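Hi again,

Forgot to attach this to my earlier email, sorry! This is the prediction with zinc ion bound. I've pasted everything inline since the attachment limit keeps bouncing my files.
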Amino acid sequence: MKRFVCVLLSVVMTAALCVFPASASGTVTLTYDLMYEGKTVTREYEAGAVPEQESFSREGYDSCRCYSDGGFTEHFDFSKPLTEDKTVYVRWLTEDELVNITVYLDPADEEPTASGEFVRGEVPGQFDAPGREGEYFAGWYRNRQCTVPYNPTEVIIDSFDIYACFADSPDEVTGYRIFDSPQAKTPVVGGFIKKGGTMFFPASPKMDEDQLLEGWFLDRGLTSEMDFSQPVTDSEISLYPSVLGEEEVYWVGLYLDPKDAAPVGYGFVKKGKPVPEPESPSREGERVTGWFTDRALTHEADFVSPNEDDISLFPRWEAIHRHSITEVPETAATAATDGCGKHWICTECRKWFYPDNPSLVEIEDHEEMVIPAEGPFVRGDANGDGDINISDVTSIQCFIAEIETEKFCRAAAHVSGSDRLDITDATYIQYYLADLVDTL
Ligand SMILES: [Zn+2]
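Structure tokens for the complex follow:
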């Protein structure tokens, strides 16, 4: 229905033009709507003349801009000839709404060449390419080193500097063109970057709320996706967005709590791609231990398999468990029974921890702490060959380095009386062999 009305309107307008061709000649009126207190200023022009931009001032404002619509989405184009009556909408701006772009025509310059005021939240667009004798313009950059290219599709939020960068040869320059659809005939913006550098990620083209930018492609057929992490090596690139419609995407709603009525956020993902796992939100004293697709938390979310349908994700919150630990002293091995090394244990969750509290490193393999019963042993005779000598030191070193040895008696090797069997035990045996200590 809406489309029909539009078509009808355009037919009427065409008809009107045919009936009154005189309106293309004679005089036309340019009306400036000053957008306050109903103030307007009108100027008469000969039809086909290029209008001159007027400037206005208003108490309490620093600057103004002229737009072709009252919603201030498009700047009025004063370079086009006036063929019919038009209205210019004046937007008043305070200092807070203005930002500066400072231009350096040479990255080595201390003083800027020029500077311009732009409206915060608008897209300044591309700047003209400056010429320089014997060198080739290689694009506008955000830094003197010419490594971060200026992105002319980006909304300006804060003031910044831009630098004109040059190359010695045209072979060192890549020209780029950015289109707003694979069908578009003319690019939205074009420019240059240094070949071998990386390209900026363009701002998304205008999309509906239920559409998703899948990515940017180097061809209209959308077969070759641009990899923005790789250096650009072509002399020329064109970028086309792949915008997915309602039919091609599924919705993902992210809830902060299964009891919440509405999701805290949502997004769209291409059908056939797995659901992206959200980052765990944080909450005092609790942590997320899983994501579910139902409020009852019975169906765990699958972040691996391809998905087609809209999905809601609910986190399962669990109170963060604080271990309540007690010390378990070493039980010495005997000839017949295994002993166990000193450790800590949580009286609630029964997890084991190394004795170097408070780091609470969990001992997952309890076997590690077992001091095996290995029959009668001689303290210090780590390899059980019946003699205490340097080979026992080697044996301990092998054990520490996790090198397999034929026989190793842990109970015999652990001579230092410390919490853990380590190099101290080997040192202790060396002291003994050097007669620095009397007993082991
Ligand atoms: Zn615990």
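Confidence is low (pLDDT under 50) at residues 1-23. The chain has four domains: 28-93, 98-244, 252-319, 325-433.

That should be everything now.

G.
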